[in-house]
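Human: Here is a favour to ask of a fellow structure person. Comparing notes only helps if you start from a blank page. I am asking you to supply a protein in sequence and structure-token form. Write it directly below this note and I will take it from there.

Assistant:
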Amino acid sequence: MDAATNPGGWPVELPVLVSVEPLSGGWVGDTRLATLTDGRRVVVKDCPYPAVIEADGLGALRRAGVPTPKVLAASGTRLILEYVGGPPDWPALGLAIARMHRQVGPRYGWHRENRGGRFLQPNTWSDDWPAFFAEQRVRTHLADPSVPRAVARRLDRACDGAIQALLPSRPVPSLTHGDLWTGNTVAGRWVIDPEVSFADRELDLVHMLGVSQNPFPPEFWEAYEHEWPIPDDFADRSKVLGLHHRLLGVRHFGDRGVPALIADLDALGW
């Protein structure tokens, strides 16, 4: 991949590439580590969506004080990012995420549709959190053929009743990353791959606490909770809020995601 073999695909504002090598990660997009003629190392990500969508989310996080790689260019479906590393600083990252959650939006939603992994994430503005969550984080997935019809019917009923009853109507509309887990951090100090919106921060927290294969370390949580403690009754809502990522798991990975989704519905009594 270079300016000669990929005409028009390299941003004119950047020096051309002299070498490219594979880079781990990048399940949704294709990521590579590249060296430019001026010696800089950059990350090249080819996305299955307009790169400006991801650049917009990274910019929002950066303005909120979250350490993210600088966006060097966003051209078509190609995103060029600063290559970052360094020693872990989990306490600083925990504090930054708590302060990100303290960035308050006017309502729930975002100024544009963006992506939940490979899929469209609607973000139409709403003043009602349960309605926003039910329609734009649960019901939006239910027509996908990977979601079993019986499961979709159970969730559709919940959108009109149980979800409305269990979620608070007007929690703080926090700036949220949308897919925050350790796999979307770099070197224990940087954050990548946002799916931003203004939402109840608990939508981030349930994903951060629920991905147990590689959890955030205690020092991250100590710093986070020093800035903004997690509510004592958070567990009462965690399975409800986790439905969004359960459904994304089914849509991305098929049948292997279905048992966990059904188990949560059974536990909720829906």
